[in-house]
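>> received
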Amino acid sequence: MSDGPPTMGVEEEFLLVNPRTGQTSPCAEPVLGRYRHHGPLPDGVKVHRELRLTQLEAATGVCTTADELRHQLTAARRVLAGAAAAEDCALLATGTPAGPGAAGPPPASTGRYAEIDAVYGAVVADYEACGCHVHVGVPDPDTAVAVVNHLGRWLPTLLALSANSPFDQGRDTGYHSWRTVLQSRFPGSGVAPHLRGHAEYRRAVETLVACGALVDPDQTFWPARPSGRFPTVEVRVADTALTVDHAVLQALLSRALVQRALSELAAGREAAPLSPQVAAAAVWTAARHGLAGDLVDVAEETRRPAWTLVEALLAHVRVPLDESGDLAEVEKLLDAVRTEGTGSVQQRAAAVHGTAAAVRWLTAATVPAGHGTLLTG
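>> returned
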């Protein structure tokens, strides 16, 4: 292990919508064609389209501190929001559309996206779900698999904290993370199985590809997994974060969980396997109730009040957060969530005044105000 905390980076997916009606708008290509005219992006930040042309993704570079991460997230949101506005679109940080979905069938895809459309059919035809993916550096692929085993217990709590998708194309679903429900329709979704080393992980993924359940090895739907592109563990359980603060909270908690797992592994303590059925129940419960009710403690196989599990998570990662200097920041951000509610709670409050009001509110919430001039680097 290195002397300092692991590196981290965040990928954020956003929706593009008509700013007046909230209907999703397939304007990703023109927005990408002009974003460079709306301000510089910090070194390492990249933006690109997603599965549907109603979506964009912004990825930070490799970050070591919360301040660096916050700066990169803020810059990307501001630049993309400016480019979207110039194309008469609004950039929204929401896990699912608050207003109607795109009119008509999706435009024809090419390449890998076309293959995904062909394999999954109607399951993916109207899939406009957006997530927040946190990458945390690990030393090697075998360690990545062992870390993922350690993360399983805490993934439902991270999901509940991130819940930001209460609507499905304008309809209130009664869930706090409808995105999780949409993702559960894909084969091989749910918490990753307990695997022993990267060779076993690779065989498990290759088997799903051979069975036709996955298009390729990069497409596993597990909410935490070893990255196929970077020397990282990718924690992808969260809905797209409503605000930069919510994204920073997910990143710092994810990094601390990985750091705690690395310490456990260095001491020779492997994670105990979890019951797949209880893990599935825990993910569903977090999607259904967010922080508003009981969640499932996967390790103890019982229900507990949501904030009891949040407090248990904080206790679990208190030492690594203290070591990285992030403890006070995380405590402040958690207090804000306790006071203001998750994104799903805040979205529902805004939607009381109608879809148009909710879209205006989401547009403002997505992009931080102030903070002066953006700088590169």
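>> Confidence is low (pLDDT under 50) at residues 371-377.
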